[in-house]
Amino acid sequence: MANSMNEMLRQDMECEGLLECFHDLKGLDKEIFEVLCDYEEPLTVDEVADEVGRERSTAYRSIQRLLQAGFIQKDQVNYEQGGYYHVYSPRDGEEIAQEMQRTLNEWYAKMGQLIGEFGEKYSDRPKPATVEG
Q1: Which of 56, 60, 87, 125 has the most C-beta neighbours closer than 10 Å?
Q2: Predicted confidence (pLDDT) per residue in 34-90, tens digit
Q3: Total domains, the chain
Q4: Same domain for 40 and 105?
Q5: Are residues 77 and 108 in the same domain?
Q6: Helices (H), 13-92
Q7: Can you give the pTM of this predicted structure?
């Protein structure tokens, strides 16, 4: 990932790069998100782990990051004889996009404020004297 905004703007980026940019998600997180999007039915952690060829615990940690970021949802399925398990599916893409747009707008407003403060702080500073020789 790029270290500065200028570097990010020069990179070729796909829309899935927003997962990393907005929420610092990893490559596996993006892969799991795409797997969940490819299936019409929600998947269990074990099914996701099989799809990406990773251990269950690794897939679970990635799923937790996606849940925390708000990209997927968790639903509980109850067994008739008692007990339950969880399945995971992607949230609506338009809702996620709107949330990212709100976050971007908030960030933009905050950066504008900080740039204004920077200008006020450093615009009236006396210029250093030049040495003529």
Answers
A1: 87
A2: 999 999 999 999 999 999 999 999 999 999 999 998 899 999 999 999 999 999 999
A3: 2
A4: no
A5: no
A6: 17-23, 27-38, 45-52, 56-69
A7: 0.68
